[in-house]
Every structure is written in structure tokens, then in C-alpha cells.
């Protein structure tokens, strides 16, 4: 029988019955209809606590003894005066801090090997705006790589499942989208660990690649990622202080129009022609405007260029894609469901304690996913992208049900 919305004036149901029905539907929709018990995860868009049993178990299973003692960076990146000493050491002979100068390690993935191959990638989802992008990609039989923010899966596990089951490439983008060089080693572990867990809970797989938010990575962050079995993927730079960032996020801030953002994309293609390799471009499926730019301008233009070959990053690297049919949690589906570490001492991901409570207050370091690390005009990456753009808030299904109740509307079965 279909669900219908009826006014209370048409009902003889008692207030107690309506209230009971409300709590039942709220619980069902908010926690279990998508297979996630929200109480077992940290709050969205905040750095997870490091004293939870889950994170402590991770810390006990990995070896951080080889992580270099590089000082934590201050919020604001190259513009922060407290980072002056770090900037002098940002090069390859120092801490190799990508944010200030674009330094990359030989182990970082920044290009596709084959010339004219474009590794499509989209950051910061899943969101409801991802659907329009997915529709376009499916229509044109394109596969892309999605760097997903762990906590945004809480409200959109169904979209994550669609991305994966459609054959797209899935990769981590941390839990809260916080600049990693501003965090302690333990907080970085927590950011990665919760992302690993929620994707495993929803898809039943464990991934091996991560893109640091804003591209903010140095040798300390790299070492923590390596200890957890994770590889860093950024995006291409053809010139010093110029990266293949579409600047689609600047349409949100008003710094660019769709036309000038498209001109930036054309400049990227011109730079790509000078490379002996393929390239990886940064774009976002976070906002309606960034998706519109992708499906109305950038992708049609790319498809019209017969020299370009658009692929997911895994495909362009000649590696197995992480797309496919979602596996049962705990199983292996192309990628291992084992705890990713460099010693392979266990075959199980640490399980979150079901009694884990949500912490109150904020972290001592940046807990705002839109906090910039670098706002300079040189090597911005996505740091500036979401720092200047307004933060999106996604209401949970439970909140929607609460709103219906407060409006005096109830769900009944016809």
C-alpha cells in the first residue's frame, strides 16, 4: 500500500498513537533504512576524537615510529605568519609541503602515464548534486574517480552505492575535510580510520588511495598515510605554482563566472598538451554550480576533443577499478577488507564500539572543513575552494520527519 500524507483533521487516531508512530518512523528512516546506525559514527564535518575505542585500536595496530617529527602547521597555510619557518622547509629537501610550492613525493600520484589521458576526479561528495553528474556520466558511458568525504556518506549512502555499482572509482577524502597538516598524527589516523570504516560498512570494501583535503600534505602526513597502507593522490601541475584545478569552486564565491571558470579549463587543456604524460584534474560534485559547469561546459567540450581519453584514475594508472557490485561487509571484492597497514598483522578492520558517544565541543585544532590552510595566489588546491565557499548543510532524514511532526502532518498507510 502506498504512503500518503493526511491532515490530522481527517484522523481519529489518538495523539499517543501518532506520537508513537512518529518515533518509530523517525528511527526507521533516520538510522536503518539506509543500513547505517548513525550513533556509531562521529559528528559530521568535525575532526573525530582520538580517544574512542575504535581509534585507539587503530593506533595500537599501526607503527608510527617512522613518522618524521615535523611540526604541526598553523591554520592559514602560506598566509599564516606562524608558518614562516615551515615555508622555508616546504621544498623537496625539506618537509615537501605541497600547499606552499607544490612539492610532491615520488610516491604521490599526480598524473596519468599515457599522454592525452585525463583522469576524471570529483571531490567532496557524496551530495544530492552528485546525482546530476552521475546521470551525465552514465549517459555518456564515462567512468570517474570520486574522492568521498566520510561523514557526508551519513546522509547519502544510497548515492555512494550508486557511484560504486555504476563502476566508478572510489577513494578516500578523509572524514571531516580538514587540512591534515594542521592535525596531530593521532587525529590524522582518526580522519583516515573513520573514512575507511564507513565505506567498508556501506560497500564492504577497503580502498588504498586518499586525496588530502586542499591537497594539504607534507612528509609527516605522507608517513601516517603510508603506515595505514594508503597512497596519496593529488592532481597535476604543468608549471610552477599552477595546478590543474578547474577553479569550479570560485563560481560559488563569486571570484569567477561560469565563463571565466571554463576559460581556466581551456588553459588546463593547453598546458596538458605540453606534457609527455596524461593528467589529473581537480573538480567538485559538492555544489549545483560546480556540477552544472561540469555537465554543461567542461565535459561536453572534453568529449568533443577526440584526442582526449577520459578515464577514472585507477583505469588511467592501469590498475583495477574499485567500482562494481557492493559486497557484503567483511567480504573481499577486488580490494581487501583487511586492515590496511604496512605489516599486515591482522585481517580485520577495527570495529567501532557501539557505545561510542558523540563528543561535545570543538577540537583544539581546526574542526571546520572550510578552514583554509592556504589562501595565497600560488598553490591553492581545494583548500581555498571550500574555505571561501559557503558550507552546505544536509538535513538528515530524521530531521525531516521531526519537521513533519511539528507541522502537524503524519504519515499513514492508505
TrEMBL record:
The keyword Calcium does not apply. GO terms for molecular function: chitin deacetylase activity; metal ion binding. Keywords: Carbohydrate metabolism, Cell membrane, Cell wall, Cell wall biogenesis/degradation, Chitin degradation, Cobalt, Glycoprotein, GPI-anchor, Hydrolase, Lipoprotein, Membrane, Metal-binding, Polysaccharide degradation, Secreted, Signal. Residues 116-316 form the NodB homology domain. InterPro entries: Glyco_hydro/deAcase_b/a-brl (IPR011330), NODB_dom (IPR002509), Polysacc_deacetylase_ArnD (IPR050248). The keyword Transferase does not apply. GO terms for cellular component: plasma membrane; side of membrane. GO terms for biological process: cell wall organization; chitin catabolic process; fungal-type cell wall biogenesis; polysaccharide catabolic process. It is an enzyme of class 3 (hydrolase). Its EC number is 3.5.1.41. It is found in: Cell membrane; Secreted, Cell wall. Residues 380-389 have a biased composition (Polar residues). This is chitin deacetylase.
Amino acid at each position: 500500500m502506498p504512503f500518503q500524507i493526511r491532515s490530522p483533521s481527517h484522523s481519529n487516531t489518538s495523539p499517543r498513537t501518532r506520537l508513537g508512530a512518529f518515533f518509530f518512523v523517525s528511527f526507521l528512516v533516520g538510522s536503518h533504512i539506509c543500513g547505517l546506525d548513525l550513533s556509531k559514527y562521529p559528528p559530521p564535518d568535525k575532526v573525530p576524537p582520538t580517544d574512542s575505542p575504535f581509534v585507539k585500536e587503530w593506533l595500537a595496530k599501526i607503527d608510527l615510529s617512522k613518522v618524521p617529527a615535523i611540526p604541526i602547521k598553523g591554520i592559514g597555510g602560506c598566509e599564516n605568519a606562524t608558518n614562516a619557518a615551515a615555508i622555508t622547509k616546504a621544498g623537496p629537501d625539506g618537509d615537501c609541503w605541497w600547499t606552499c610550492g607544490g612539492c610532491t613525493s615520488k610516491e604521490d600520484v599526480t598524473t596519468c602515464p599515457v599522454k592525452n589521458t585525463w583522469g576524471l576526479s570529483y571531490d567532496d561528495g557524496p551530495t544530492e548534486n552528485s546525482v546530476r553528474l552521475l546521470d551525465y556520466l552514465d549517459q555518456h558511458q564515462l567512468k570517474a574517480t570520486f574522492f568521498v568525504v566520510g561523514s557526508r556518506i551519513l546522509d547519502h549512502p544510497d548515492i555512494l552505492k550508486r557511484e560504486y555499482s555504476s563502476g566508478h572509482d572510489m577513494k578516500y577524502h578523509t572524514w571531516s575535510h580538514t587540512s591534515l597538516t594542521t592535525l596531530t598524527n593521532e587525529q590524522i589516523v582518526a580522519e583516515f580510520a573513520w573514512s575507511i570504516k564507513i565505506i567498508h560498512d556501506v560497500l564492504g570494501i577497503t580502498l588504498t588511495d586518499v586525496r588530502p583535503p586542499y591537497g594539504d600534505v607534507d612528509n609527516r602526513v605522507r608517513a601516517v598515510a603510508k603506515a595505514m597502507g594508503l597512497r596519496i593522490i593529488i592532481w597535476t601541475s604543468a608549471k610552477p605554482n599552477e595546478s590543474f584545478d578547474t577553479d569550479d569552486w570560485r563560481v560559488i564565491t563569486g571570484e569567477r563566472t561560469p565563463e571565466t571558470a571554463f576559460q581556466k579549463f581551456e588553459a588546463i587543456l593547453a598546458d596538458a598538451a605540453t606534457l609527455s604524460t596524461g593528467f589529473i584534474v581537480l573538480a567538485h560534485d559538492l555544489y549545483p554550480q560546480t556540477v552544472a559547469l561540469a555537465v554543461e561546459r567542461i565535459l561536453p567540450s572534453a568529449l568533443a576533443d577526440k584526442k582526449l581519453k577520459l578515464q577514472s584514475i585507477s583505469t588511467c594508472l592501469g590498475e583495477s577499478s574499485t567500482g562494481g557490485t557492493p559486497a557484503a561487509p567483511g567480504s573481499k571484492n577486488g580490494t581487501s577488507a583487511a586492515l590496511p597497514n604496512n605489516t599486515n598483522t591482522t585481517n580485520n578492520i577495527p570495529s567501532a564500539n557501539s557505545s561510542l558517544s558523540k563528543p561535545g565541543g570543538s577540537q583544539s585544532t581546526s574542526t571546520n572543513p572550510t578552514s583554509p590552510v592556504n589562501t595565497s595566489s600560488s598553490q591553492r588546491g581545494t583548500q581555498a575552494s571550500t574555505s571561501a565557499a559557503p558550507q552546505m548543510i544536509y538535513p538528515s532524514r530524521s530531521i525531516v520527519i521531526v519537521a513533519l511532526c511539528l507541522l502537524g502532518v503524519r504519515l499513514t498507510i492508505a
